Amino acid sequence: MKIDLKELFEGQKNTIDIEVQEPYKNFNYYNEEISFSKPVVFKGQAYRVNHEVFLKGIVEGVLLLKCHRCLAPFEHAITHHIHEKLTVRNHEQAEEDELFSVEDYMLDISDIIENSLVLAFPMKVVCDENCKGLCLVCGTDLNESSCECEKSEIDPRLLKLKDLLQQD
Ligand SMILES: [Zn+2]
Ligand SMILES: [Zn+2]
């Protein structure tokens, strides 16, 4: 979605309130399909101070993720604060000065939201810091029960590899 900021850049207006919902179905993050339990929302304002134009606001959403240890689905709420200086210069020139480019006065709010999702994405995709995960041998969810598998036993395939490595 794009928002026309021409009046702001030309000084006819000093502020423009922006409230946008992105009804993402899916979002691809490093080949992982992420879904959302409700639309991602941007709430904020573009404003003009001393002939310069800024954007500030908050991106909020709830990601539906799958725990990398136990595979259980869980929700992860994100809140990302945005404060950017905007420029009408083109993308390459803008990037050098770390400004956000608004070509033809059109602010691409979807782009801003997408960046926020990437920046706010959790480092570790786990349902809980203490999630015990699944047993690698029998697949039991170790958060719910335990199993009889011998954890210290070395996989026979690894033993063979160990022999090979020790040959030279
Ligand atoms: Zn888990
Ligand atoms: Zn087991």
Structure description:
The protein has 168 residues and is an alpha+beta fold. 20% of the residues lie in helices and 40% in strands. The protein is built from 4 helices and 8 strands; from the N terminus they run E-H-E-E-E-E-E-H-E-E-H-H. Strands 2, 3, 4, 5, 6 and 7 form a 6-stranded mixed β-sheet that branches. It has a two-stranded antiparallel ribbon with strand order 1-8. Strand 5 and strand 6 form a beta hairpin. The protein is elongated and about 75 Å long. The mean pLDDT is 87. Bound molecules: zinc ion (ZN) (2 copies). One zinc ion binds next to loops.
Q: How widely separated are the two ends?
A: 62 Å
Low-pLDDT parts are none
The count of DSSP E runs of length 2 or more, i.e. the number of strands, is 8
Biggest β-sheet, characterized? 6 strands, mixed
Q: Which sequence of SSEs, written as H and E, runs from N to C?
A: EHEEEEEHEEHH
Q: Using only CA atoms, what is the Rg?
A: 24 Å
Mean pLDDT: 87
List the helices and strands and how they pair.
Blueprint: E1 2-4, H1 6-9, E2 15-22, E3 26-29, E4 32-49, E5 52-66, E6 73-87, H2 91-96, E7 100-101, E8 106-108, H3 109-120, H4 156-166
Parallel strand pairs: 6-7
Antiparallel strand pairs: 1-8, 2-4, 3-4, 4-5, 5-6
The structure holds zinc ion (2 copies).
Residues 67, 69-70, 72, 126-127, 131 line the site of one zinc ion.
